[in-house]
Each structure stands twice: as structure tokens, then as C-alpha cells.
Amino acid sequence: MKITITGTPGTGKTTVANILSKKLNLPLFNISELVKKEKLYIEFDSERNAFVVDPEKLREFFHNKKHFIAEGLVAHYIPSDILIILRVNPKKIPERLAERNYTEEKVRENEEAEKFAVIATEAIEKSKAKRILHIDTTKRKPEDVVNLILEGIGGKEVFEEVDWLE
């Protein structure tokens, strides 16, 4: 099974992916680390202090892999059986990103991105996944999110309405 997990920074991707990987006994790939290690980037963006991912190189890396979990901001670039989009109330973003040494500008940028569903919209529009799960993590513990994902993997429809603009 190929599972990809995406969402704005602070939605719980890494935490949820770690728990899910152990429960399903699937290898886990953190895309940020993978991009650096395998040189799957086009350039380094010094303004954002991040590598610009090369989508073709990323897809090529996963091309022959049959079973995995890949988590990261651009996980939706990878063809998968299930794409999981994690969401969180934008007001929680500063609190969740506090320990990451992000600049105030980067925190605000991520808060706005979540408010306007930038990652979620792109993921839904460009997804190569057979199924999409869309989950609000705001009031859930990571273990509860994983249990919901397992229900989705089992066939339950898991696509929650999320609109932070209302």
C-alpha cells in the first residue's frame, strides 16, 4: 500500500505518519529529509530557507516502491493509493510551530496558507491518489487521527468539511 500524507506545517503530518507507520509496519519517508539526502531538488530558496523540490525526481524515487508512507508538504506529488490531507484551525499554527525556530513571517505565511486551504486545494486538484482522506486534526489527539485514517483505509468515507473562512 502506498500512502501519502500532506498538509500545512503544524497539522500533525510527522507525528501521525510515525504512529501510522508503526501500526501498519510500512517504511516511512520524511520528504524534507529525503529531498536533501537524495538531491531531489531544483535549487535552494535562501529566502524561505528550504529546498525547491523537483516533482519529477520525487516521483521517480517512489516509482518502483510498492509499500510506503511518505509525509511532507509536497507528498501529494507522489502517486499513491491513499492521500491523507491533514488540516488544523489556523489559530493553532503559531502554537504548533513555536518550537521550530520559524521566523514570524514564516509562521504567518503558514497560518494564511492553512486559512485559505492552499495545500489542501493543490493536493485535491493535483492528486494522483486513488482515494483522498481529508481530516481536521484541531481537536484530536494524534492516535485518534490515526484511528480515523485506519477506518478510511478500511473503506470508510473520511472527507471532513473544513472551512476556516466562515
Automatic annotation (TrEMBL):
<keyword id="KW-0808">Transferase</keyword>
<dbReference type="InterPro" id="IPR020618">
    <property type="entry name" value="Adenyl_kinase_AK6"/>
</dbReference>
<dbReference type="GO" id="GO:0005524">
    <property type="term" value="F:ATP binding"/>
</dbReference>
<dbReference type="InterPro" id="IPR027417">
    <property type="entry name" value="P-loop_NTPase"/>
</dbReference>
<dbReference type="GO" id="GO:0004017">
    <property type="term" value="F:AMP kinase activity"/>
</dbReference>
<keyword id="KW-0547">Nucleotide-binding</keyword>
<keyword id="KW-0698">rRNA processing</keyword>
<dbReference type="GO" id="GO:0006364">
    <property type="term" value="P:rRNA processing"/>
</dbReference>
<dbReference type="Pfam" id="PF13238">
    <property type="entry name" value="AAA_18"/>
</dbReference>
<keyword id="KW-0418">Kinase</keyword>
<dbReference type="GO" id="GO:0016887">
    <property type="term" value="F:ATP hydrolysis activity"/>
</dbReference>
<protein>
    <submittedName>
        <fullName>Adenylate kinase</fullName>
        <ecNumber>2.7.4.3</ecNumber>
    </submittedName>
</protein>
<keyword id="KW-0067">ATP-binding</keyword>
<keyword id="KW-0690">Ribosome biogenesis</keyword>
